[in-house]
Amino acid sequence: MIKISIIGAGRMGITHYSIINSHPDVTVSAIADPSGLMLSMMKKYLNITTYKDYNDLFNKNCPDAVLVCTPPNLHHDILKKAAEKKIHVFVEKPYTTDFHKSKELARLFEDRGLVNQVGYVNRFNDVFSNVRLLVNDNVIGPVIRFKSEMFSGTVLKPDDGEGWRGSRKSGGGAVYEMASHAIDLINYLVGKPEKVIGSSLNFIYSKKVEDAVSSTFLYKNGSSGTIYINWSDESYRKPTNKIELFGTKGKILADQHSYKIFCNKENSKLGFRQGWNTRFITDLFQNVPFYVRGNEFTRQLYHFVDCIQNPGTKNVCSFRDGADAQEVIHKIFNDYATNGKAL
Questions:
Q1: Does 138 lie in the same domain as 286?
Q2: Most confident of the following: 34-48, 201-215, 329-343
Q3: CB 115 within 8 A of CB 285
Q4: Percent composition of the chain: helix, strand, coil (DSSP 3-state, to 5)
Q5: What CATH number does the domain containing 7 carry?
Q6: What pLDDT, on a 0 to 100 scale, did the predictor assign at position 342?
Q7: Longest distance between any two alpha carbons in the chain, whole Å
């Protein structure tokens, strides 16, 4: 049995608890959170050991692995402590709020041979996983242009920035909260851009952080693409990530639920006719043992356990991948500070 503890008992912490607790080879040994009310509920209804301070959890509970679901500005110190204790870590995105610290942590966990994973859940989505296979198999040819968009109705009234989501320093704002997913998806499907230009941040309801962001990514091979993220779009009930990929042999339009592929020529091997073809997630999905919010949420945590049980298994979303996403975020903020504000 793998002894796993959870640090942070907010929405994602509770979601991950319900999933990882379903794994037959895992025991959830403890939960740490500063909220006395939350801990008393956990202790009463789950009969689980609780701590207000994660340091006490590390020192007294001695888990094999931890799921870190705290605000992003707290991640660095927690992960560094976990590395010192030789504890495997799954951490929610965006991993850190500092590019240099993200690289430091990636090296630290790699050097110690510890499993390290970031919660960029799109990498485990059945649709996006299939799109990656199509891109890697050159089905639409080299990607020349792309567009990655994400929308939600997260912030729809004036926000004075008092909570952690209203402060970029603590990991709030549309870039860290939502754009990080769209950025990582681009890194996963197309690769990390060499240059970021034309970045724009828009303040719609929030006083201290951006509510919308757009930017252009450039690559050495001449390909390019754009991102546009808006978490103040009332026309979307749930967060939706869309991606468009244009290549020399065709085009792909995808979101979490389906993809459409336009083939310039028939591809009988894959069952694609010339023109448009549609595949829904019901055509693609692989069952998971326990369902909460989407198959991808279970798949990512079960993958984390697989990596612990089978040393040497390549992690689908490592700290190194998280550092790559953080590098692009760093470039967007720098580009906006240097060029965007000057306009």
A1: yes
A2: 201-215
A3: no
A4: 40, 25, 35
A5: 3.40.50.720
A6: 58
A7: 62
Give pLDDT tens digits for 119-173: 999 999 999 999 999 999 999 999 999 999 999 999 999 988 777 777 888 888 9
**Per-residue pLDDT at 39:** 86
For residue 104, give its domain range: 2-120+296-315
Structure tokens of 225? 């693409």
Q: For residue 86, is pLDDT > 60?
A: yes
Residue 157 tokens read as: 């009234």
- CB under 8 Å to 208, separation ≥6 — which residues? 161, 166, 167, 168, 172
Q: 113 in helix, strand or coil?
A: coil
Query: Taken in order 201, 103, 221, 135, is the CA torsion positive or negative?
Result: negative
Task: Strands of 58-165 (E only): list them.
Answer: 65-68, 88-91, 116-118, 143-151
**Which residue's structure tokens are 């850190």?**
96
C-alpha span between 333 and 248 (Å, rounded) = 32
Answer yes or no: is 320 within a domain.
no
Beta partners for 151? 230, 240
The whole-angstrom separation of Cα 146 and Cα 148 is 7
Task: Identify any residues that bridge with 150 across adjacent strands, giving them in sequence order.
Answer: 229, 241
Q: What angle do CA 300, 228, 13 make, to 5 degrees?
A: 30
Answer yes or no: do 179 and 210 share one domain.
Answer: yes
pTM over cut 0.90: yes
The pLDDT of residue 316 is above 90: yes
Contact indicator for 322, 118 with CB cutoff of 8 Å: yes
Q: Which of 331, 262, 317 is nearest to 106 (CA)?
A: 317
Give the contacts of 289 (CB within 8 A, at least 6 positions apart): 22, 23, 298, 302
- For the chain, the domain total comes to 2
The tokens describing 187, both together, are 């890194």
- Residues 333 and 309 placed together within one structural domain of the fold: no
How is residue 287 written in tokens? 């069952």
- Distance of alpha carbon 61 from alpha carbon 122, whole angstroms: 32
CA contacts within 13 A on the Cβ side of 44: 6
- How many beta carbons lie within 10 A of that of residue 138, not counting itself? 12
Across the range 276-296, mean pLDDT stands at 94
Same domain, 247 and 278: yes
